[in-house]
Amino acid sequence: MTKILIATTNEGKFVEIKSFLSDLPVKFVSLNDLKTKYREPVENQPTLEGNAILKAKYYAEKTRLISLTDDGGLFIETLNGWPGVKSARVANSKTKRNELVLAKLKGISWKKRTAEFRAVLAIYDPQIKDLHLTYGETAGHILEKPINSDNGFGYDPIFYVDKRNMAYAEMSIVKKNSCSHRGKALARMKYFLQKQYS
């Protein structure tokens, strides 16, 4: 059975991705499952694509495993796309990142709190030097205060999906995967994996 590394130490993200791809004839492992602990690469690319590719190639070459990575960002229209590519790095905890976004949007009306989540998935096979990318995006609004829920991670407590009338943090994994930016990119990646490794 083909083994694929989902190259993340974020347990919430690993569970979400593995859950979406679980019916494929593939064994998925995370960085936490590996005996060797690898230092994270510096994500210094100016685009989501660049960072996803950088991580996929880095972990594939280190582990010799087919590696699946993602890079995602929250792009807030009224803040000229900020935090964008730097979404995961604007503060050192989920709570602080959410607080920072809400502080920047203080006093901004609901109509102008539009945002878009974007994701890029990259998979790299180090044996045949093959790279494949998929994309997804979801439009919504930034709430005025976070949803109090144990669901989700990152900006999920403050990102409201207009088409579902609920925040990411209010959704089960299955519901979130059916409409999220990562879920859309995963659906396209799953199609590729089915063709490639079934």
Automatic annotation (TrEMBL):
GO CC term, one of those recorded: cytosol
Catalysed reactions listed for this entry: ITP + H2O = IMP + diphosphate + H(+); XTP + H2O = XMP + diphosphate + H(+); dITP + H2O = dIMP + diphosphate + H(+)
SUPFAM superfamilies: ITPase-like
Cofactor: record remark: Binds 1 Mg(2+) ion per subunit.
Stretches of the chain forming a coiled coil according to its record: none
Keyword Nucleus: no
The keyword Signal is annotated on this UniProt entry: no
GO MF terms, alphabetically ordered: dITP diphosphatase activity; ITP diphosphatase activity; metal ion binding; nucleotide binding; ribonucleoside triphosphate phosphatase activity; XTP diphosphatase activity
CDD domains hit by this protein: HAM1
UniProt xrefs under Pfam families: Ham1p_like (PF01725)
Residues binding Mg(2+): D71
Function (record text): Pyrophosphatase that catalyzes the hydrolysis of nucleoside triphosphates to their monophosphate derivatives, with a high preference for the non-canonical purine nucleotides XTP (xanthosine triphosphate), dITP (deoxyinosine triphosphate) and ITP. Seems to function as a house-cleaning enzyme that removes non-canonical purine nucleotides from the nucleotide pool, thus preventing their incorporation into DNA/RNA and avoiding chromosomal lesions.
Assembly notes: Homodimer.
The name this protein goes by in its record: dITP/XTP pyrophosphatase
